[in-house]
Specification:
Blueprint lengths: L6 H14 L11 H39 L5 H10 L6 H10 L1 H12 L1
């Protein structure tokens, strides 16, 4: 009885890896073993990168809020604390957008929590 190797499935697996490696430099896009390592590494970086993106945006928003609040004589920490005390539930993304694009609206919020 001849040996059965299921070449169709094997080829499909390799093809899937090589398609994901399209555009990689040198043998990383053509050699299956090198491509598999490169694709695995890229997928790991992509997973971590999705988490880092959230961190990066949050820190950017905090910097923008801090800059906007400093113009009105407050610090970021005191401002956030005052927001919580006054039950103003605006997230950092919205506050940062207001600080950059709507300074009058942001000033109104700062004045409300200040006094």
């Amino acid at each position: 009885m001849p040996r059965s190797v299921n070449a169709v499935a094997s080829r499909a697996r390799r093809k899937k890896v090589l398609e994901r490696a399209k555009g990689y430099w040198g043998t990383r896009s053509t050699n299956i073993s090198t491509a598999k390592n490169a694709v695995d590494k890229a997928l790991a970086y992509a997973y971590v990168g999705r988490k880092q993106k959230k961190r990066d945006y949050r820190s950017l928003w905090i910097v923008r809020i801090n800059a906007g609040v400093h113009e009105h004589g407050l610090t970021y920490g005191r401002f956030i604390s005052a927001l919580k005390k006054h039950n103003i539930e605006l997230n950092r993304k919205v506050l940062a957008d207001l600080a950059m694009n709507e300074p009058d609206a942001f000033k109104a919020i700062v004045d409300k929590v200040k006094g």
